[in-house]
Amino acid sequence: MVLVTSALSGCERFETSHSNYARYADAVKADAVGFGKWIPELLPKSARDIRETHNLDSNETWLTFRYSPEDLATTLQQCTKIDQEKTRRARQPLNNWWPTTLSRDTSPAADGKYQYYQCGSKAFLAIEPMTNTAYYWLLGV
Questions:
Q1: 101 DSSP assignment
Q2: Which residues are bridge partners to 62 per DSSP?
């Protein structure tokens, strides 16, 4: 049983990929943005410090980026603001930058740190206005 569990958790690492881009233009140049890609087109053009993790098997995506506040309106027009309680949180990814408070494995405190949005049936966005940081996730199949 231990060997099976170890083998399965090892497969998770092979199915998970990570990418980093300094700027939105770098992600576009790498052909990583758009329909059918891991980075959605809804990112603002000012997005920087982009970190992306995805799982090939489940199609889950975790993404964070920093943004310029004046450039965020276009992104938010593509989403609907929701209450924290209506947010479907993702599982904790295999990376060290995803906040545990956005993981379904923890119970987040209603501290007002994030503004929550739904961007499609399975996509969510948490905005942290104090640091101009956004977290986007797409739930898997």
A1: G
A2: 53, 137
- 88 neighbors 125 (Cβ within 8 angstroms): no
CA dihedral over 123, 34, 134, 52, signed as positive or negative: positive
φ, ψ at 2 (rounded to 5°): -65, -40
pLDDT digits (tens, 9 = 90+) for 33-92: 998 899 999 999 999 999 999 998 889 999 999 999 999 999 999 999 999 988 999 888
Give phi and psi for 20, each to the nearest 5. -135, 140
Chain center to CA of 12: 18
Domain boundaries, the chain: 2-138
The pTM for the full model equals 0.86
Gap between the Cα atoms of 106 and 42, Å rounded:
27
Joined together, the tokens standing for residue 104 give: 């379904």
User: Which amino acid belongs to residue 83?
Assistant: D
